[in-house]
Design goal:
By secondary structure, this protein is mainly alpha-helical. It contains 8 helices and 5 strands.
């Protein structure tokens, strides 16, 4: 009898365990290769960029000191090499992110940092430079872990919550609480429903499993509007 999703570990290191015939296992299987893992991180990071009106691909772009940017060359007057005055040509997303005032450890800042690491990681993979691949792979994984820790656990830690049954609120959560958390995570991460259900179950296991959040969401979606 299927008792729902299986997990290894607990607290901030808890991870979902999949069977290969599980339809939800596609993302986990993709992460088994370095190229698949890079592609998955890249999709998530560029989704965050796009949601914040920032460059959504690896491509040169024009950017001014205020953080305005364009893939197309802005209008004149032009300076040296035909670059518009007050603008510069940038090759990675970190420049516009800094000029927009995002902190390096914000959601956008982490995404920009990981995208830069991905550029160098792929370049050294193509060149067969194993030392640099290991170095940039380490930096990429470090940023990924820090980002997840900050997004998923920092708020609770600052409020003094602990990962123990005695610290869990006695108030029983309802579907309104679950829906609010789902929407918060979708806005924060710039991804879809499935990701939000998974993260919500990690953040608030006392509110139910991943399927509980999924059922709450689709129950709301299926209700006729007034």
């Amino acid at each position: 009898m299927d008792s729902g999703p299986k997990y290894l570990g607990s607290g901030i290191t808890r991870e979902r365990v999949y069977n290969y015939d599980d339809p939800d296992a596609a993302e986990a299987v993709e992460r088994l290769t370095i190229e698949g893992l890079c592609a998955q991180i890249e999709r998530e990071c560029f989704a965050i960029m796009s949601a914040n009106d920032l460059p959504d691909r690896h491509c040169s772009y024009f950017c001014d000191e205020s953080g305005n940017w364009s893939f197309e060359r802005p209008p004149p007057p032009y300076g040296i090499f035909g670059i518009p005055r007050g603008w510069s040509v940038c090759n990675d997303v970190s420049t516009v992110v800094k000029r927009r005032g995002y902190e390096y450890d914000s959601t956008v800042g982490f995404a920009a940092g990981m995208l830069c690491d991905l550029i160098w990681l792929r370049r050294h993979m193509q060149d067969g430079n194993t030392t640099e691949v290991a170095l940039h792979g380490f930096h990429l994984g470090n940023k990924w872990a820090k980002r997840n820790l900050k997004q998923n656990w920092e708020a609770d830690a600052l409020r003094g919550r602990k990962w123990s049954e005695s610290a869990v609120s006695t108030r029983k959560a309802d579907d309104a609480d679950r829906l609010a958390l789902i929407e918060e995570i979708k806005t924060e991460r710039g991804k879809g429903n499935r990701d939000a259900f998974r993260i919500a179950a990690m953040r608030r296991p006392e509110w139910g499993s991943e399927s509980t959040f999924r059922n709450a969401f689709y129950k709301k979606a299926s209700k006729p509007s007034d």
